[in-house]
Amino acid sequence: MSAPLLPEGAPLAATLAAALVLGVGFGFALERAGLGSARKVVAQFYWRDLAVLKVLFSALVTAMLGVFWLSRFGLLDLAAVHVPETFVGPQLAGGVLFGAGLIVAGLCPGTACVSAATGRIDGVFVLLGIFSGMFLTGLILRKFERFYTSTAHGAWILPELFDVPYGAVVAAVVVLALAAFAVAERIERGAR
After folding, report:
1. Are 52 and 111 in contact (CB under 8 A)?
2. CA 33/CA 52 separation, integer angstroms
3. Residues 6+ apart with CB under 8 A from 52
4. Crossing angle of the two packed helices 121-140 and 88-105, in degrees rounded to 10
5. E strand intervals along the chain
6. Cβ neighbour number for residue 50 with a 10 Å cutoff
7. Could you give the CA distance from residue 76 to residue 68 in angstroms, rounded to a whole number?
8. Per the UniProt record, which residue ranges are transmembrane (predicted)?
9. Who's near 112: CB < 8 A, 6+ residues apart?
10. What is the pTM for the complete model shown?
């Protein structure tokens, strides 16, 4: 999903400046949470440190509440928010590849950027792997175009998918996040 941060037709320099400010802010938040360290990210899989779950769930809930309330107050037109189309098969395959890469490398693209920016060599190598994979994908994508465009289902969003009001979905996700935080705290206390 991408929201219109600037009016349509805004100068490229303004768009790039907004992207830079948001990217640096997000990277700073990830580093402050310790997620530039592959050890911290991998601890998630061993149920020792669930900071990744907490940080990402916090970001998701904050963005969701922001979009919901900005649209309620008429400050954001939800029709202007782009939601990409859902391709079930290719996105499942991509999720499996992404998850395997995360487990092997201990970093995702965002945390790899933070890791590399703070001078960690593992982050640099993960970024080299990501860019190599992107380059190779670009070379062979046409051979897999049929699969890549298969199982299209339009843009899925939870309120439409479950035929419930936006507010109900927002409330349910907030409750789910609070429950996840409570369970994560309990798991972490037990792991100490």
Report:
1. no
2. 8
3. 35, 40, 41, 44
4. 150
5. none
6. 20
7. 9
8. 12-30, 51-71, 91-117, 124-144, 164-184
9. 105, 123, 126, 127, 130
10. 0.74
Question: Mind listing the pLDDT tens digit for each residue in 14-64?
Answer: 888 888 998 899 889 888 888 888 888 888 888 888 988 898 899 899 999
SS3 labels along 103-154:
HHHCCCHHHHHHHHHCCCHHHHHHHHHHHHHHHHHHHHHHHHHHHHCCCECC
- For 128, the token pair is 């080299």
What would the two tokens of residue 4 be?
């219109």
Tokens read off for 90: 């290719």
* pLDDT at residue 34, rounded to an integer: 86
Residues with Cβ within 8 Å of 154's Cβ and at least 6 positions away in sequence, in order, are: 85, 86
DSSP conformation class of 189: H
Give the number of other Cβ atoms within 10 Å of residue 123's Cβ. Answer: 23
pLDDT at 104 over 70: yes
Structural contact between residues 30 and 107, judged by C-beta atoms closer than 8 angstroms: no
> Which value, in Å, is the radius of gyration of the alpha carbons in the chain?
19
177 has a pLDDT exceeding 90: yes
